[in-house]
Amino acid sequence: AWRPALDNGWIWDDDAYVTQNDNLEDLEGLRDIWLRPRSLPQWYPTVHTTYWLELRLWGRTPEGGPDPFGFHLDNVLLHAACALLLWRLLRRLGLRGAFWAAALFAVHPVMVESVAWVTERKNVLSLFFALLSAHAFLRAVGFPARRAGPPAPGRGVEAGGLLVLRPVPAGLSALAFLLALGAKTVVAPLPLVLLLILWWKGLRPSRGVLLFLGALLLAGAASGLYTAWLEKEHVGAAGRWFEHGLLERFPIAGRALWFYALKLLWPHPIVFIYPRWEPSAADLLGWAAFLAALALPALLFLGRRRLGRGPLVAVLVYGGVLFPALGFLNVYPHQFSFVADHFQYHASTAAFALLGQGAWLGLRRLGLTGPPAAWLRRPAALAGLVAAAAVLTALSARTRALSRDYASEEVLWRATLERNPEAWIAHNNLGRILYTRKGYEEAESHFEEALRLNPGHERAAYNLGLVRRRQGRLEEARELFERALEITPDYAYAHQELGIVLTMLHRYEEALEHFAEVERIQTAAGAAVPPETRVSQAQALAGLGRLEEARAILEEVLAVQPGHVLARAHYGIVLARLGR
């Protein structure tokens, strides 16, 4: 199912995470990965440490960049390990459909976004450590490895039936949990999941067990809150796309929750960027979905004597783990869509556990129990097994096909637009790829479409301005750069390009104002002023006859970059005008 993923290259965000991540270059960068949260696109030090190690393990391509093959291979291996750990965990908990649950998880198309995308190492790595933590916890309390029911006294159980901890596996559980948090803080609810499992099995935790899980829960809460703060202040999950009132967020959550559940049952279509609906407090369908989501666990609780506690626990875990992605918290990708497949990678394990148990019960009804030789005498049982295998085969084929969408960024954006033509971010990003390849006409059409779909997208306005400048349509380019700055006043690149266009229009004084803004913004961010800005600044000064100032700036640029061709050209012009 995952073989095509090994041939994929780098796509969206992989540059910030891997290919252009300076922290991966040396030991100082490894230190910054752990001690400087803002040095990373998202502070997940466990993930970036694996990138740091992989860069040394897998080496670079002849072109000098990191070799993507090893990174993709590791993602697939981590996902396979998660499937195996899930199977063993569910067997340990006495779930008879453990194999079917793990098999569905292993090859389901909804997993493609997490496995075939190197940036989403966050998911596969954090689940891997979370499952290890759960295994170690069950060992710490003496839960049986192969049978359901409470453990026997003497294996982590007091005489009164209260579970107690064994220190070594408890320490390993805590360590694995902290590493999982360092990969993605969506695993923060794991201590509550473990408590629900104990309740499901009718086990009573001792005070020590409760204190242990409480400490893990506090660590998870602190880590999750810090991640939410960074998401808003550092990643950029703020602004007009996130200005929803509380009453608008409940319908968003209702729609999203059922979207995810139905996508597991019917994984078609699978889209990298799903259509984004308009949030509204008057969204009756969204409210109905939210109320239904509340009613389901309530009904399962009332029917627990007949159905058992298992279905209720599965539903609570599914909804609880999904909670951070349901719209109550600001999450950066929600500006593109309120749903994304990678958001339910962890939560899906609970849903698959429920589906796996259901599959096993269905096969048992058909008589598929006992030795395999007996199945041949039960045609219905054999037909049931063939049907189950056909489902897994179909899912595998779909996963294999979807994995190819991640071959390159251009392939991914074209596939996205084929299934969702109104994905404005896909139009903009595909346009950037085409612009870099000098496919200006096609790039122009995508930038225009991105602006039509999202008039407030400053990057689309900026990118279309670049095209207009190349076409010599300077006044239109000026208007587009000004439009980008109206949306985002501190957009340094837009200031730079606007200054360049104003210089070309001989409006030198105005151009210098924008170059000064670039210097202000870059200095405040602790970054260097781009040499292109300095060269254009010198050109504007020369246009005003301030030749000595222009000469000094160009000499500064050439002292740092002696081979800067544009700087040398303008330096020669300035020297000629100075009579030298």
Helix content: 55-70%
User: What is the count of β-strands?
Assistant: 2
**SSE class:** mainly alpha
- Beta fraction of the residues? under 5%
User: What is the typical, i.e. mean, pLDDT?
Assistant: 93
Biggest sheet layout: 2 strands, parallel
Radius of gyration equals 28 Å
Assembly of the depicted chains: single chain
Overall shape? elongated
Q: Can you write the helix and strand succession as a string?
A: HHHHHHHEHHEHHHHHHHHHHHHHHHHHH
Number of contiguous helices: 27
Distance between the termini: 69 Å
Regions with little confidence, pLDDT below 50 for 5+ residues: 145-160
Strand order of the largest sheet: 1-2
Explain the overall architecture.
Mean pLDDT is 93; it is low at 145-160. Helix 4 packs antiparallel against helix 5 (98-107), helix 22 runs antiparallel to helix 23 (492-504) and helix 23 (492-504) packs antiparallel against helix 24 (508-524). Strands 1-2 form a two-stranded parallel sheet. It has helices at 14-19, 27-35, 45-58, 68-92, 98-107, 112-115, 121-140, 167-181, 190-200, 207-235, 246-265, 284-302, 304-307, 310-322, 348-365, 372-375, 379-403, 409-419, 424-436, 440-453, 458-470, 474-487, 492-504, 508-524, 531-543, 547-560, 565-577, and strands at 162-163, 204-205. It is mainly alpha-helical and 580 residues long. The longest helix has 29 residues, at 207-235. It is elongated and about 100 Å long.
